[in-house]
Amino acid sequence: MFPKIRRTQYCPAGHSSKDFAYSDRQNYVHSGICDLCTKERFIQELKTCSSGNANIDKIIQESQINNPYYNLQWMPYDNFQNINHKVDGSRGSVYSAKLKNGRKECWNFLKQDWEYVLIGHKVALKEITDSRYDIASFLKMKPIYNRKGYIAEYYGFSKNPSTQNYIFVMELFDDDLHGFINRTYLDLEWKLKIDILLTMICGLRSLHAENYVHCNFHGRNTLVCNYFDEYYNSDIVRVSIDFDSCKLENDLILNSDHKNNETYGSIPYIPPEVLRGNKFTIEGDVYSFGGIMYEMVTAQRPFADQAHDTYLMMTYMVL
């Protein structure tokens, strides 16, 4: 038997299946789909439909060039339906919404149109109202984690035309870990508690392996989704870390002289050395995780019997 010879495929634009669409993968050309055509179409459309911020546009485009199937996209605000307020956070508000037209997946050169996914899918809209928040710095790290199952997935980016605030479009979860524990604590088995903690350890480890420090790790930004898995015929609890507070450890070291300028978070989970004005570290994330372990065991946050105020901070700093 002779080995089967794979025929070279071409798209109308002249791209070949022997071309490399990415550094580690050859171009896929089949059934109207061409990776290189998709990449070029993303670049072309960003020129006419941009965020209005050159730095953000650059980062979005870089993510699309690296891999168009796990990227950031600019998503028009009119693509969102049934917008409902969920919760207010430290940097803004979170809403749930439905994607009317879905999310662009790849360009079909036969139809001369986009193929869409997630049509009618529910998503979370995280509207950033804190002008001090460095969105561009966050987006620089975003493409790294879209394929890691322990990290919350971000689909794209938008802007509220009424407030002019930028919006992160991300997957929607049922609850955060703090709410999940309060709601289900009496029914939680130890095996599930340990599985949740192990998942969080894997998420932290994936961040630390890329030299990132979470800087604000607690139950409110650990997200939980509960669903029924037909394959396993059982209820599944999925836990993901929201990492919009993360920073490169090297950047934290370089900025360590500017003490106290970025100390934020939930007081019981902030390492004492950070409250004293020192930089966040990977070890600090581990300290914060200890607070989450305490909450998982007791269903209470650390220092639950005290007000989380300046007095606690001052007491905490001398530990």
TrEMBL record:
PANTHER family: MITOGEN-ACTIVATED PROTEIN KINASE KINASE KINASE 20, SERINE/THREONINE-PROTEIN KINASE TNNI3K-RELATED. SMART domains: S_TKc (SM00220). It comes from Diversispora epigaea. GO terms for molecular function: ATP binding; protein serine/threonine kinase activity. This is Protein kinase domain-containing protein. The keyword Iron does not apply. Keywords: ATP-binding, Kinase, Nucleotide-binding, Transferase. Pfam families: PK_Tyr_Ser-Thr. Transmembrane segments: none annotated. Residues 80-319 form the Protein kinase domain. The keyword Kinase applies.
